[in-house]
Input
Amino acid sequence: MKRFTRRDFLMAGAGIAAGATVADSVLGAQPAAAELALKPEPGATLRVLRWKRFVQGDEDQWMANTKLFTRATGVEVRVDNENWEDIRPKAAVAANVGNGPDIILSTNDDSHQYPDSLLDVSDVCEYLGKKYGPWYPSALAYGKSGNRWIAVPLGCGGNCMNYRASHIKAAGFNEFPKDTAGFLKLCQALKKNGTPPGFALGNATGDANGWCHWLLWAFGGRMVDENNKVAINSKETAAALEYVKQLYPTFVQGTLSWLDSNNNKAFLSGDISLTNNGISIYYAAKNSPDPKVKAIAADMQHANFPIGPIGRSTESALFFTSVIFKYTKYPNAAKNYLRFMMEKEQYEPWQQAAIGFVAQPLTAYESNPIWTADPKHTPFKLSCKNMLPNGYAGKLGTASAACMADFIVVNMIAEAATGTPTQEAMKKAERRAQRYYR
Amino acid sequence: MSAATKDLQQTHGMGYLVSLPRRVVTVYIPLVVFLVVLLFPFYWMAVTAIKPNAELLSREGNPFWVIHPTFDHFSRLLFRTAYPSWMWNTVLISVIATFVSLAASVLAAYAIERLRFQGSRQVGMAIFLAYLIPPSILFIPLATMVFQLGMFDSKLALILTYPTFLIPFCTWLLMGYFRTIPFELEECALIDGATRWQILIKIILPLAVPGLISAGIFAFTLSWNEFIYALTFISSSENKTVPVGVITELVEGDVYHWGALMAGALLGSLPVAVMYSFFVEYYVAGMTGAVKE
Amino acid sequence: MNAPQTQVITGSARVPVEPARLARLFDNRNFLGFLFMLPAALLLLMFLTYPLGLGVYLGFTDAKVGRAGEWIGIENYQYLVTDSVFQLAVWNTFLYTTIASVVKFALGLWLALLLNDRIPFKAFIRAIVLLPFIVPTVLSAIAFWWIYDAQFSVISWMLTRLGIIDTYINFLGDPILARMSVIIANVWRGVPFIAICLLAGLQTISPSLYEAASIDGATAFQKFWHVTLPMLTPIIAVVMTFSVLFTFTDFQLIWVLTRGGPINTTHLMATLSFQRAIPGGALGEGAAIATAMIPFLLSAILFSYFGLQRRKWQQGTKD
Output
């Protein structure tokens, strides 16, 4: 029964005898210089696990860039794609057992759950920051743990209001409202016209967390304060909940059950005229062979989230990072790969192929022509700049990730929306959050 | 249907049979309702699998029907994903895991039921208890072991872990079945000087074929459906199983490829369905043995 | 423990064997027993018992993903009993298991009785009845998700066309309806297995028992109650144990349909444990939730195991 092939045995060996020591010695031999010289180890090969595309062009171009990397360095790279929510168990297992793909493209604060399992990529990030930077604050928040960069920020899947221009007009609005008060009026008018809005309130990791956090923050509410002390039970939060009590009745029915894909479907079928999403709805509509859906693409527009009483942008977006695990046998090759993918020659075509699905974390890429090629792309341009990180205003870490995964904010807002008294909903959320922040 | 009913009347024109209208109410109508409800989701899968995307979200027309059937989803599945190799993996893993489990279970069940070694009752009980372990949490510690044994991302990982939930059921089922085989047969053979091994192979096993088949089918189905282990222990596309491959690669962010997903579900059920249609009578018979005294 | 041990389960009398030979056999028996148990035991101990021990241990630590935890005793459990989401999940699990099992049993038994009747295309119908059991759960769950969709449900479509309702049914968005919907999906999947197993049981009942009952002038219901049901009891006990266990630990269905929503009203212990352990990273707490399932499962198993033993004995005396 116990007959392993040699390769298996080697893999097992590497898993047990911490690959970290190997990595450290190699790194030690090559101190990070001003000029980033990351010579891949001889015979290096890499395995990359990335989230399955939201838009086709993203994956195609990523693969094309990977080919370029192989041609330039001779390092074979194998890329596996998986639905982004299934990356989590994989990454969790990899971090826990110390073996798996060399590089994982992960989402949100996942990397802050196991910073100790991750290779220090400060040299790559500082190099990129100097060349294309500075990094936006959100990138710093997601990429750094303490003084150490644990992940190379790739950007974020911007989250914007998707709306039907003709329906907004019919509701008496010439442009998309800029503040929350106007937004509520718009939703009420849309509802009256029979073209309601719809925002996910189910346990939808992307969309529900996206707009619920925006709403909480727009009114000045926040999960924790700057010292990571739970601060959700506040009059600001209460104001947000009172607001949602007026907003929710305007939604199309069934949003409590919505997961991430429901609003895409409902928007493309014309059931709703307003929702929050990345660019994937527009991409699907634009590339559909169906003339009716094409017409929706022509009619739809994107807008940034309205600004609440707090007076500044409080968007929330799905952030993408790439991490290298310490157990990798080829740390230099891995770092070089991530550096290569972030260089202008690769990064800009990637953004273009994904028609701006990924918004850059580095200021230099603001000039990428993709943002102006189609005015409908433009609102996504500054997503990384406009967004607040998870667990705002505290630090990212296991607690922020746990609160997010437990849908504490989404549940609180859904409860308030469906009639739970404001105080009760807040207290519940506070209690649950205190469990993780202590 | 009417032809069938007539046919039935002819074959079973027995006196004590209740009148036809009554049978229609008590047997046929409920049966038809059952069949409709049980099969409706399949119909829905099949319709979705051949619907072009445009019709899927369309508000016009009848959702139960397809206006322009298309095989795009099937061709996408077969030629643009690794579906054929997922299928092959699932077959391979399920078959081997089933045989490994059956072999281990036959030995275990024989030992518990017929050898009656000291403590066999307790062991039988312990095997039964193995069911109380929810795999949804087992996979983290198990993943650690899979790595340490160097089996990560290989089919071997699944082949060796699936028996953990197959063996208890198979053993239990076979224990029941062995119980129905008269002891006399075995004792005569013992007196004739046969070894226990010979008895097992030459006498018990041939008699236990229905039991083996039904245990095998059940084990095969469970392996075929397994999700969490396959999701976490396998990462290369070419090593995935059907349920995992379909879910992880046909759901792209917030875009579901409904047609291809349903096509994958249908194609993925076919082999098991074919097997069941061949063996369903044995299956029923095997289950019977398990509980018959 | 002794009582079941001494009762020999076979009805046949055993041929006496002379003492010396018996002794030798006995030796062999234990040794052979050990040998025969070895493959199963190795696999189970290695891939089940050891990880289980590890899992239970994790429940007493504050382990996080990627970080070994420290022993914190029963702190996880202390928190959980006061956690409203956990309480809800426990309640949901019981509700889900009880209702789904009872409905599955009732429908399964009914279907088995129907299939046991004289019907045309018997083999074919039996085979297709098993279909729901065959399709990988995640995939049938996706089909159900589409059928229950708030905007695209065909059921709602049909009912509105028939003029029965005027707005679409909020299948997964209303706490009560969502629970009902997931239970229906679970029942759909579980009925065929139960029906086929019970059908197997039905076929072992000798027709002579029914004939005897008929001669005594029993009604159809009396025959069912006094002949069919008692004869079926052993298989009912076993099948229902499996059904309860599978329902209690259900994960895939909920994860696809609702992720535990709306507002945690369909969260089961298994899904909550996964949500907290993997996406949430709180391995220790997730393990504690999973461990908390064990006592319930254990009692279900013991109940049926000993229930089964007693039934057998009762039957033995009845015959």
